[in-house]
């Protein structure tokens, strides 16, 4: 009787849900159509709506028809295809992982595809478009498999985002290294990597459309199984759904969609994250949209609207000539970064990712031995850094140079090499100390200037100054970097402080801000002249190339101040790293103490970035290794972390200068290659 009584009531609701879903789909389709029409009418040529209409009707001037048929229509078609593919891929990945932050970006699919195509380009291998898409597919699929295996399914948002961000940084660093080493072979690869839907004819769209349609059809065929996974693994198994096989199938199809989009337009960021998030509120109002068979096409429409909307907005705000140089992916990355920050404020706190620190407290002898070994290593790597390079020297040459009795050739080499070694040592020590301070006051073992966006803000400020001021001085660059780092730190720590520096909020806000600074830096590089672009790109790789003695003075002063603050407030650091209540019980004001220490950390990061560019993972690896070696008391952690950071960056700089001499790789690229496996291993060890 109960079922009979409720059936008449549920039928109108079901009908209303179907009607509402159909209405939403129709409105979205109309919006995408309007954006497509507007997008077709925009461009550098003076071809307006009337000429476009005549071209479509076959009555236009041949020149106007050529512009419309060869450029504008393919660009709009590419925007539709890429946006729909990324939107559907993001929806599928979020459904099978049960994680609202799963997307081609956060799973490093785009970075894996980018590296795979970069290797093809460097190798001089010329493949048809479909074959290139296959290579991109394999790279993206491998990256997604690594991230999912490390983060686990349903294990929380922080772990997935951190694993994806770390792997993305590592893979992107390798690709950027290839760009710097092979500038001729990779000409235009950097601009392509920012994501642009500009096309020269329909050839690319025609070749990629069947791939995207086949992947979409496969996802729709597995829609019922995807819906069953939403009920939980046990419930899905009870319904006869092969859970593991379904997940693998969906990830493969989503990677295929993403690789098709990357091959056609480059990595266009965050569409796969934003499109499902925009559809999600509609599912609460229209229950029919919960079904994957309905929601995935709707998400595809939203993704197409995002890409076309970004292209239209870019060409509306920026003049036509400049809009050609600005990739569409820069706009979507900025929008996606803000979206990620907003989502970070709404995502609930999940299980924290703890560090595998050693619980026992080593004795004083062990501490002194550790410091002695690190000092010896520091001296050894510094001496090697001075002696080795494209020109090998002897210790006698260095002694003669110090006494002013060296020859002209030796003096020239040492005048350029010694400041580079000093910059690497000081920057590494400053970044390690900055990471130690941030991890202590936020009680977050994953807090690091690079992950939290502070390094990105410093880089943005410095790049903006370097590309706009012809003769930028050392102190002025450091000041610009400090201003940029200060703004980003104010945003990140200010938003995170509202929730008591919860790990989820702090990390996600930091990742979002870091993505925004990366997009803005890319915008500056693309819009500036080639000389400044190369200079900025080399500097962003963490290179000490061209550093002089005055360039090391700001970071040396900041490091001296930072060490003094850390030593004087070592007891406060120990208390703040425990919990929120203990410092208050002992008469310490956590807010005031935390603010002063964070300002010191920002100053250290900014001057390090100004001296040696953006160098990642040092602020994470050095404090972790220090605590594992000497325990958690900051009177011991600080000196060990500083020594470790200096040794790590100087070693990375030495390897980058000598392994492939006379060509060079920045220290930042080398630390990313070293730090990414360490960070992923850390996530693997703490996986529950």
**Regions with pLDDT < 50 over 5+ consecutive residues?**
1-6, 351-359
CATH fold naming of the largest domain: ABC transporter involved in vitamin B12 uptake, BtuC
The number of helical runs is 29
Largest sheet: none
- How many beta-strand segments? 0
In terms of structural class, how would the helical and strand content be classed? mainly alpha
The name of the CATH superfamily of the largest domain reads ABC transporter involved in vitamin B12 uptake, BtuC
What general outline do the C-alpha atoms trace? globular
Helix content: over 70%
Distance between the termini: 47 Å
CATH class wording of the largest domain: Mainly Alpha
Residue fraction in strands: under 5%
Order of helices and strands: HHHHHHHHHHHHHHHHHHHHHHHHHHHHH
Please tell me the overall pLDDT.
81
Radius of gyration: 27 Å
At CATH level 2, the architecture of the largest domain is Orthogonal Bundle
| Number of structural units classed as domains | 3
What's the gist of this structure?
The protein is mainly α. The protein has helices spanning 2-41, 49-57, 62-97, 109-122, 129-151, 157-181, 189-193, 203-221, 223-229, 233-238, 243-265, 271-285, 292-317, 320-325, 328-346, 364-387, 395-402, 408-442, 454-468, 474-497, 503-527, 530-540, 549-568, 570-576, 581-585, 590-612, 618-630, 634-658, 667-685.
């Amino acid at each position: 009787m109960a079922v009979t009584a409720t059936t008449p009531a549920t039928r109108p609701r079901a009908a209303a849900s179907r009607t509402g879903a159909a209405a939403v789909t129709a409105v979205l389709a109309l919006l995408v159509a309007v954006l497509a029409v507007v997008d077709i009418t925009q461009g550098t040529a003076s071809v307006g709506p009337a000429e476009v209409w005549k071209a479509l009707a076959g009555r236009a001037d041949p020149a106007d028809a050529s512009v419309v048929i060869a450029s504008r229509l393919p660009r709009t078609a590419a925007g539709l295809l890429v946006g729909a593919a990324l939107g559907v891929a993001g929806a599928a990945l979020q459904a099978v992982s049960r994680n609202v932050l799963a997307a081609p970006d956060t799973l490093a699919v785009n970075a894996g595809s980018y590296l795979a195509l970069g290797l093809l380009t460097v190798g001089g291998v010329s493949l048809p478009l479909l074959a290139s898409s296959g290579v991109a597919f394999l790279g993206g699929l491998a990256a997604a498999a690594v991230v999912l295996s490390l983060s686990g399914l349903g294990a929380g948002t922080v772990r997935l985002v951190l694993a994806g961000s770390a792997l993305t940084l590592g893979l992107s660093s390798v690709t950027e290294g290839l760009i710097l080493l092979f500038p001729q072979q990779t000409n235009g690869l950097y601009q392509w990597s920012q994501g642009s839907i500009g096309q020269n004819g329909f050839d690319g769209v025609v070749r990629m459309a069947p791939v995207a349609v086949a992947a979409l059809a496969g996802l729709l065929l597995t829609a019922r199984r995807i819906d069953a996974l939403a009920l939980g693994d046990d419930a899905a198994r009870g319904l006869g759904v092969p859970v593991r096989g379904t997940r693998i199938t969906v990830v493969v199809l989503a990677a295929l969609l993403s690789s098709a989009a990357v091959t056609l337009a480059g990595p266009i960021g965050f569409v796969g994250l934003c499109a499902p998030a925009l559809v999600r509120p509609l599912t609460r109002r229209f229950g029919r949209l919960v079904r994957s068979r309905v929601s995935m096409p709707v998400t595809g429409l939203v993704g197409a609207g995002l890409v076309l909307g970004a292209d239209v907005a870019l060409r509306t705000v920026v003049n036509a000539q400049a809009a050609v140089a600005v990739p569409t992916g820069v706009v979507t990355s900025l929008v996606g970064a803000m979206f990620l920050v907003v989502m970070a404020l709404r995502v609930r706190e999940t299980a924290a990712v703890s560090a595998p620190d050693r619980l026992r407290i080593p004795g004083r002898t062990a501490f002194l031995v550790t410091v002695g070994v690190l000092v010896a290593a520091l001296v050894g790597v510094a001496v090697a850094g001075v002696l080795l390079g494209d020109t090998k020297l002897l210790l006698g040459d260095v002694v003669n140079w110090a006494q002013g009795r060296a020859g002209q050739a030796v003096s020239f080499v040492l005048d350029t090499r010694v400041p580079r070694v000093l910059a690497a040592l000081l920057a590494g020590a400053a970044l390690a100390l900055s990471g130690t301070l941030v991890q202590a006051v936020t009680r977050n073992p994953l807090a690091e200037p690079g992950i939290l966006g502070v390094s990105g803000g410093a880089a943005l400020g410095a790049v903006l100054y370097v590309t706009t001021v012809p003769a930028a001085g050392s102190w002025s660059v450091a000041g610009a970097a400090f201003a940029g780092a200060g703004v980003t730190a104010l945003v990140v720590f200010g938003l995170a402080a509202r929730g008591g520096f919860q790990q989820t909020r702090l990390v996600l806000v930091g990742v979002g801000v870091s993505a925004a600074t990366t997009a803005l830096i890319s915008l500056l590089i693309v819009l500036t002249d080639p000389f400044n672009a190369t200079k900025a790109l080399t500097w962003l790789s963490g290179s000490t190339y061209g550093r002089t003695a005055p360039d090391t003075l700001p970071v040396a002063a900041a490091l001296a101040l930072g060490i003094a603050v850390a030593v004087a407030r070592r007891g406060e650091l120990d208390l703040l790293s425990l919990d929120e209540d203990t410092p208050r019980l002992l008469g310490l004001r956590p807010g005031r103490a935390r603010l002063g220490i964070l300002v010191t950390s920002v100053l250290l990061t900014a001057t390090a970035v100004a001296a040696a560019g953006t160098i990642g993972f040092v602020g994470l690896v050095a404090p972790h290794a220090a605590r594992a070696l000497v325990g958690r008391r900051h009177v011991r952690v600080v000196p060990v972390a500083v020594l470790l950071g200096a040794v790590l960056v100087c070693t990375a700089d030495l390897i980058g200068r000598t392994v492939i001499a006379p060509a060079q790789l920045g220290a930042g690229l080398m630390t990313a290659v070293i730090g990414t496996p360490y960070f992923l291993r850390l996530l693997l060890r703490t996986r529950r």
